[in-house]
Design brief:
- The chain is of the alpha/beta class and about 475 residues long.
- It folds into two domains: about 1-165, Rossmann fold (3-Layer(aba) Sandwich); about 195-465, pyruvate-formate lyase- activating enzyme.
- It has helices at about 20-30, 40-45, 50-55, 65-75, 95-105, 135-145, 160-165, 215, 225-240, 255-270, 285-295, 310-315, 320-335, 350-365, 385-390, 415-430, 440-450, 455-465; strands spanning about 1-5, 35, 80-85, 110-115, 125-130, 130-135, 150, 195-200, 200-205, 220-225, 245, 275-280, 300-305, 340-345, 370-380, 405, 410, 435.
- The chain has a seven-stranded parallel beta sheet.
- α17 packs antiparallel against α18.
Length: about 475
């Protein structure tokens, strides 16, 4: 029995597709032969980043070229008993549906199994420029005769069981010790520009933020022992020369105890390794802890700051105060650890004064602007989240919601975009780096504003962001 593991567009193409590399490691342990096909990487190497809009269903100037590339690629998938397709996010749904149709057109009779977080679109079924993102992509593809099975959640046990004809529905794994290592032997590591791979230290999250759907995927937060995470990192460095790692974790420091173990081991090893990952500012971090974070090879932290307002963050259930916020920024900045601030503009309860506190927070962080990047998104309602359940007025479209605030103002899409522009302009004025996809985000905001009356002045402001 042989299985082809395929990673379709669209996600970051500058590092090997993590899902299929991990599943190859799982299948190796089970004695099942597999081969990885990083279609995502090959797709963007051929068509460039200009193909992203087609993958995400927003524009289609390259539609014929995209479909032809995927059709031709299917030649590589002939001769396998199974084809497993791993969707990184819902932005992989459009390309995956094209891939599945092309497989049928080629007359390939392999069994098809789908997996990955991209099987679900948190906003529900959505029409996007003639294409669709589905709330349950797996069920839809089976109904259309394009797939045979889908696996939600962890595939560690489910995929081997399915391939052997056994029941493959499993509860979340409660013990993450002794996980297999991803296998990158099918990847040409030299073609990615940097020797960077994904590493996983935990699944789930210790927080249950009102705007986030992570806990719909992972019911409980589970973490690997810190020494095992360090051992995997050292293994990939010694075997493949990998010296840059990106943590897939919702929070690398969800378990402060295991995070400390990892940092101490990597500091003592003193290898030329760098890592980055999502992080939460929290009390309990000492200056010694920060020294070990730096010594472990930490290159940058993606931090869910969300808002400069303590009151807004508390409503979000972020649960860290401004004292911890500002002291942590200082601890990172003084050690030249890069910080990527993840911010939300126009949270449903956010007053104008609270929005202004985010601007003030950026000014206070200005002494470390050389080490700060700002990535801000307009607040979105996602299916299954507390934020959606508590927002009374949703409107005809999920982006059109609005709320009436305690300060007497109305928070609608136009106002949320205005607050986004103020935050991004502040970052620009302070010399902070900004989202690498800023121009794309600007185009989307302008497109939406053109459907709303009396937005000409705001459109001019967006154009200058």
């Amino acid at each position: 029995m042989k299985i082809a593991l395929v990673s379709p567009p669209s996600h970051n193409s500058y590092l090997p597709a993590p899902g299929i590399a991990y599943m190859k490691g799982v299948l190796n342990r089970e004695g099942i032969e597999s081969k990885c096909f990083d279609l995502n990487h090959e797709f963007f190497k051929e068509l460039g980043q200009e193909a992203i809009p087609w993958c995400e269903g927003r524009e289609d100037p390259l539609e014929s070229s995209c479909k032809k590339f995927i059709y031709d690629y299917c030649e590589k998938l002939k001769g396998y008993d199974w084809i497993g397709v791993s969707l990184f996010s819902f932005n992989s749904q459009i390309a995956t549906e094209v891939l599945l149709r092309c497989i049928k057109e080629h007359g390939i009779e392999s069994k098809i199994v789908l997996g990955g977080n991209g099987l679900v679109n948190s906003a529900g079924d959505q029409k996007v420029f003639g294409s669709t993102h589905y709330d349950n992509f797996g069920e839809k593809m089976i109904a259309n005769g394009l797939a045979d099975h889908y696996i939600m959640g962890e595939g560690d046990k489910a995929l081997p069981a399915l391939l052997r004809g056994k029941s493959y529905r499993f509860a979340q794994m409660m013990d993450l010790s002794d996980l297999t290592y991803p296998d990158y032997s099918d990847f040409d590591m030299s073609s990615y520009g940097t020797k960077m791979v994904t590493i996983t230290g935990s699944r789930g999250c210790v927080r249950n933020c009102t705007f986030c759907d992570v806990n719909l995927i992972w019911n409980k937060y589970k973490f690997r022992p810190g020494e095992e995470v360090a051992a995997e990192m050292i293994h990939q460095y010694e075997k493949h020369g990998v010296d840059l790692f990106y943590f897939s974790d919702s929070l690398v420091n969800g378990s402060l105890k295991e995070f400390r173990k990892f940092c101490r081991i990597m500091t003592e090893k003193n290898l030329p390794i760098k890592w980055m990952g999502q992080f939460i500012f929290r009390s309990g971090m000492t200056e010694e802890d920060w020294d070990y974070v730096k010594g472990s090879g930490c290159h940058s932290l993606w931090i869910g700051v969300e808002s400069g307002s303590e009151q807004t963050r508390w409503h979000m259930k972020k649960k860290f105060d401004n004292r911890v916020l500002h002291s942590s920024i200082k601890s990172c900045g003084s050690r030249k650890i890069n910080m990527l601030f993840l911010l939300i503009a126009g949270y449903p309860t956010e007053t104008e004064e609270e929005s202004e506190e985010t601007v003030k927070m950026l000014h206070k962080a200005a002494p470390y602007s050389d080490y700060i990047e700002v990535r801000c998104q307009v607040a979105m309602l996602m299916a299954g989240t507390q934020m959606l359940a508590e927002t009374d007025w949703h409107g005809e479209h999920i982006e059109a919601w609005k709320t009436n605030l305690p300060d007497g103002n109305e928070l609608d899409l136009k106002e949320r975009i205005r607050r986004w522009a103020r935050i991004m302009n502040t970052a620009k004025e302070l010399g902070m780096k900004r989202d690498s996809r800023l121009e794309q985000v600007k185009r989307e905001h302008i497109r939406k504003l053109k459907t709303i009356e009396k937005t000409t002045d705001l459109i001019e402001i967006i154009e200058k962001v």
